[in-house]
Amino acid sequence: MLKRALIIALSSFALVACSSDKEIKKESDKEAATPVVKEETGVDTEEVNQYPLTGVAEKEESMNRAIAVMVNNHPKARPQSGLSEADIVYEMLAEGDITRFLAIFQSRMPKEIGPVRSARDYYVELAKGYDSLYVAHGYSPEAKEMLTNGFIDDLNGIQYDGTLFKRASFRKAPHNSYITYEHIKEGAEKNGFDMERPPEALNFSDKGKINGEAANSVMISYNHNPLFNAVYDFNEKEGRYERFSNGEQTIDYKSKDPVLIENLFIVEAPHKIVDDAGRRDIDLESGGNAYLIQEGKIRKLQWKNVNGRILPYEKNKPVSLRKGSTWINVIPSSPGLTNSVSYQE
Length: 345
Prior knowledge:
Elements lengths: L1 H32 L15 E2 L6 E2 L8 E6 L15 E6 L5 E7 L6 E2 L7 H8 L4 E4 L4 H8 L5 E3 H4 L4 E3 L9 E4 H11 L21 E2 L2 E4 L9 E6 L4 E6 L2 E2 L10 E2 L1 E7 L1 E3 L6 E3 L5 E7 L2 E10 L2 E6 L2 E2 L7 E7 L3 H5 E4 L1
């Protein structure tokens, strides 16, 4: 009798256990069939990477080395090729009232760039700040010494005129030297330059409202020479600034694409004439007063040289750039920002 009761009890336990296992399996199957709800982070996991010099999202990390090219801004060199695709452009005086561009490319590489002009030491130093491959056609004595002593990896039209650098038939020298991205890559390979070392990223943010005075149109005057007046007009639809020289819009020679700018940074720095040719020494180390123009607003800030880069600061704290392209105009501290820059709503 006891034996029979024990068998019944064990059988009942087995039935309960089996029933419990089935319930557990059902719950497990139900969980597996239920779609997993991912937590919203506001970040597209396919776009977590950003181009280091624009902050624009990209799906894969860019390993491109920055390329810094001296671009001619003489009226006979306009419109130029490649400027609309530059991440960063510096505009500074060379000799006399003539400005010249240092165009830095990393996120996009234009098919052709030019006209290419000669190097100056302060442009070489700025290119070094982005660990760039520096491209120019000719050089000042100071720049030649830096380049021949290996201060920076470079390609120069003096050595490669007619090979890597080509002369355009529609313009006359010295306003007709051009180089393609394919020839830059060819020159880099010939010289053993490493082209897979992206520069350190700049600080970008599109969060927060831009404060400041309204500045829908900004004009920079270089020694009151209208040929080199730079005007930046805010395109509200684009949310960016268009650029004009001597009344003509800055566009690409072939594609006609306009230069569009998210960040306009204007800094004043001491300039000094150093020789009979009118070459300059520009102090890009000491820092000073600056204007930062974004989204139709202008702010009075300061600039500092941080590892060879001219960057905006406010009360000794770095100021973020908006994601996109940046143009940096360096003007003489005499006459300075107040007398060289005007703006209006």
